[in-house]
Amino acid sequence: MENRNRWSNLYLALVFIVLYAPIFYLMYYSFNSGGTMHEFEGFTLDHYREVVQDTRLIIIVINTLVIALLSSAIATIIAVIGALAIQHVRSRRAKNTLLSLNNVLIVSPDVIIGASFLILFTIVGVKLGFSSVLLSHIAFSVPIAVLMILPHLEEMSPTLTDAARDLGATRRDVLTKVILPVIRPGIFSGFFMALTYSLDDFAVTFFVTGNGYSTLSVEIYSRARQGVSLSINALSTLIFLFTVLLVVGYYFLTAKKAKKPSVELTAEAGVPR
Amino acid sequence: MTSKAKQVYLIPYYLWIALFVIAPVLLILYYSLFDLNGKLTLSNYANFFTPVYLKMTLSSFWYAFLITVFSLLVAYPAAWLLTRTKHKQLWLLLIILPTWINLLLKTYAFIGIFGTFGPVNSILDVLGIGEKQILFTGFSFVFVSVYIFIPFMILPIFSALEDLNPTLLSAARDLGASGWTTFRRVVFPLTVSGVRSGCMAVFIPALSLFMITRLIAGNRVITLGTAIEQHFLVTQDWGMGSTVAVFLIVVMALVMVLAGGRKGVRHGK
User: Fold this and answer.
1) Between vectors from CA A175 to CA A169 and to CA A179, what angle results, nearest 5°?
2) Between B28, B209, B268, which is nearest A151 by CB?
3) CA B145 to the chain's CA centroid
4) How far apart are CA B100 and CA B89, in angstroms?
5) Closest to A27 in 3D by CA, of A233, A245, A242
6) Are B200 and B265 in contact (CB under 8 A)?
7) How far apart are CA B210 and CA A114, in angstroms?
């Protein structure tokens, strides 16, 4: 038994090492004064300096953040409406259809989303750049936010709204004073998911950026294609720290609510896009 | 009386569905019927069934299959062992955390790790095997993809295992089943839904990855995703690209029907 335990711990440890090795590998070499990712010559912060002084990169980071915040805010609003819409539908079949339509963009491979949005924007005449990227980020963030909000809406006891209405609340009061506060955790996690979706997305954005506009992941891709450059390592270290902060912050926010955060959904939503 | 008022504020959501869910699929279908000169034709489909594309499709499926199988082989035991640990939630979080890191950065790391002078080659050297070309091969593509997908395989299996009633295991043991029999007859059948979700979460994206093939496989491996990207962004042959996309959509639908029926992978409930 002891022996078996040791083997299983070893296996798990191995999985964790493999999972984290590339990330720490990147971080380690971000401090390398030599220009390569295989010979550590000496400690330096030059690559970080390079990142900080790269105005183009900073503009791209700002672009990425603006797109992420704006698109997830708008997507969350649409998602609240969508969740209400799905909940209001009485017939089971119509509800299922609506849910399936909602989930199409979650299940579709990114290339297809990207390619079809490219066609759409070209036909409608949306200029490729900020607006096309923003629109597509809103579009693919809506369904996941709906899925995060819907369970909260369904858990809400209908007697709450009935009571509010009996007490003379208007429809708007019911929405703002009863429904929205009850589903707030869902709205927060929906927003957070949309945010990470947007920050992470590469493939869809790659299709709809056009020339002259770029987000971080598209920029990383084009730099990585040119080969190793340690400023990417420095950048990734910064991103890693930022991500950890974000995740930890999110878990602290949701941990307060005793409700079990839907870990599984949260993670599955991050399937490479 | 209020049904009219309801309809009005629901408009943004329905508009979203019409514009970004239904219209794109129809547009892809529509564009697949046009050739490079904008002529209405079925030649794209005829093209698709030529050996060049069929071979590509086949190899794309083969790689997706390999990636799914290897992910499953690594992930199942890991998920099982995870359910046995103390502080499960913490370990699970640690499995999830890497998925939040941009996939391109992780892929980029492997350029260094698998490179000619990278650590893997140094180890091979020390072991006396000698340096090997690892980057730009099918192997590196499969390895990196499995690496990327493992958390998505572990999670659904983990939750299926968590739902497993532990008394069933004791019952099997009481009835004299060996460890392997218990696994084969009890544990695996009861967690097959998790395996299915995991496989779907891996297989479909694996068909359509194109950044990993470009960065790691150096165009040695061409997946359906690579082909679509190539047609849309490089050769500007949107018709052919759409045709490949239509095919991918059909495959996706088939896989979902075959694998799960109603219980879709990433449904909220």
Assistant:
1) 110
2) B268
3) 9
4) 17
5) A233
6) yes
7) 12
The span from the CA of B85 to the CA of A16, in Å, is 14
> Residue A114: its chain B contacts at CB < 8 A?
232
CA angle A77, A78, A81 (to 5 degrees): 95
Number of H helices and E strands in chain A, helices first, is 14, 0
In this predicted complex, what is the ipTM? 0.85
What is this structure's pTM? 0.86
Which residues in A lie closer than 8 A to residue B214 (C-beta atoms)? 225
Residue A110 to chain B, least CA–CA distance (Å):
7
pLDDT in tens, chain A (273 residues): 567 778 888 999 999 999 999 999 989 988 988 777 777 888 888 889 988 898 998 999 999 999 999 999 999 999 999 999 898 888 889 998 899 899 888 888 889 999 999 999 999 999 999 999 999 999 999 999 999 999 988 888 888 888 888 888 888 888 888 888 889 989 998 998 899 889 888 999 999 998 888 899 899 898 888 878 888 889 889 988 888 888 788 777 766 654 444 444 444 455 554
Q: How far is B50 from chain A (nearest CA, A)?
A: 22
For residues B204 and B190, the answer to whether their CB atoms sit within 8 Å is no
The domain spans of chain A are 7-43, 55-233
The CATH-assigned architecture of domain B39-97+142-259 is Orthogonal Bundle (1.10)
| Fold of the CATH domain A55-233 | MetI-like fold (1.10.3720)
Taking CB atoms and an 8 Å cutoff, what residues of chain B touch A21? 113
Q: Is B208 helix (H, G, I), strand (E, B) or coil?
A: helix
Helices (H), A108-229: 110-124, 130-155, 158-166, 171-173, 180-182, 184-200, 203-208, 216-225
